[in-house]
Amino acid sequence: MTKHDSNTHCILIGAPVDCGKRRQGCLMGPDAYRTAGIADAITDLGRTVTDLGNLAPADVTVPAPNNPLVHDLARTVGWTQTLMQAAQDAAPDGMPIFLGGDHALAAGTVAGMAAHAQKLGKPFFVLWLDAHTDIHTPDTTDSGNLHGTPVGYFTGREGFDAFPPLPVQVPLGNICMVGLRSVDPAEKAALDGSDATLLDMRSIDENGIAGPLSAFLDRVIAEDGVLHVSLDVDFLDPSIAPGVGTTVPGGATVREAHLIMEMLCDSGVVGSLDLVELNPFMDDRGKTANLMVDLTASLLGRRVFDRLTRSSRT
Hints:
Order of helices and strands: EHHEHEHEHEHEHHEHEH
CATH superfamily: Ureohydrolase domain
Number of helices: 10
Distance between the termini: 40 Å
Number of domains: 1
Shape: globular
Largest sheet: 8 strands, parallel
Strand order of the largest sheet: 2-1-3-8-7-4-5-6
Radius of gyration: 18 Å
Strand content: 15-25%
């Protein structure tokens, strides 16, 4: 096997998770990112890339959930097991980029990356770019859709007995959520009084994003931490990213999103990335997939003067 520089090597891991909700289509996400040229975007920046292909969930048997609304628990648990191990296997060799797949995949990716950080003896942080907090549990969800529960899992909330034991719990104080604009009462109650950094769209409108994000990143740097970034398509405004089943108006603009990615690149602390909730069936000629690839390139070092003008011709 060719040896790579783990600081500049990216590892693409296809996670066609489509069990975290009832609306189908996210299983096509990984291949849509490949079609949009994610590997070329990475190598154009002078990095190397390995594509591990698409993974499959472990075959598990779980007891019936307490909440009869819960959808496809066994497959979600199987994916969590698979991705937790995949993250730990890949992380020593480079930067894992998980191509989703719905956001249920983050239960495994974040837990696995937290375990990797623990092995390095470093504190672990999460930047959650999403319209939703996803901090429900299987017992509290009123939709039964488990893509709304990964934060609940990796922060150690109760109700995840069917899931793999957490190798390490992520403290809420080490999580920054940006772009929030759809938070239900049960999720709000779970976060009330916590020391999580919560930046909803009103606070971004009033104060901008650069200051609060800089403060969070400065803390990660000061503590010599490792940061996992979980980017949900619905973080972005649906006018620029229509390829998602959970559209919430009022999301981030192209400029805001690229600013965040460039700040993340400047910080030098990002160790892994989720690209989630892309539903190509709902996209407009690859518009969303292309934008997500462009944002990934910004996170990896592309700058504003490097961006090409897109032709309006098909």
